[in-house]
Amino acid sequence: MMIWSVRLVLALALCVSLPPSAPAQQDRRSANMLVTGCQYLVDDPVAVTQSQMEAADVCASAVATILNYGRDLQGNMAFCPPRGSDVSDAARVIVGFMKAHANRMNERFDLLSYGALRQAWPCH
Q1: How far is CA 86 from CA 7, 41, 93, in A?
Q2: Helix H segments across the chain?
Q3: What is the pTM of this model?
Q4: Band of residue 100 on the pLDDT scale cut at 50, 70, 90
């Protein structure tokens, strides 16, 4: 389990740290790049294409990583998921936040996600 978690964190870090290969491409860290997959995850669709399944998997991996570190964050980044909440619950919160703040979709997915989860699930 620990090895899998370390590999997931390293893979996510690599994905979000890679710069776009061409100036015309979107920032791979932006909410625009991940929100579609999160929407597939939230809607729980019957994925009809490989790319839809892959997009949902990328979102699930990113959200799982963010969710794992919520309680360990300090200050205004910390959030406390309710007992029993899972990746799909967190993705639902994140998608709702991003729909409500569509003007911020060019911002980093992880930072928006922390804000969404902190707003929905503050630590007391």
Answers
A1: 20, 12, 11
A2: 2-17, 31-43, 50-69, 87-100, 109-120
A3: 0.74
A4: very high
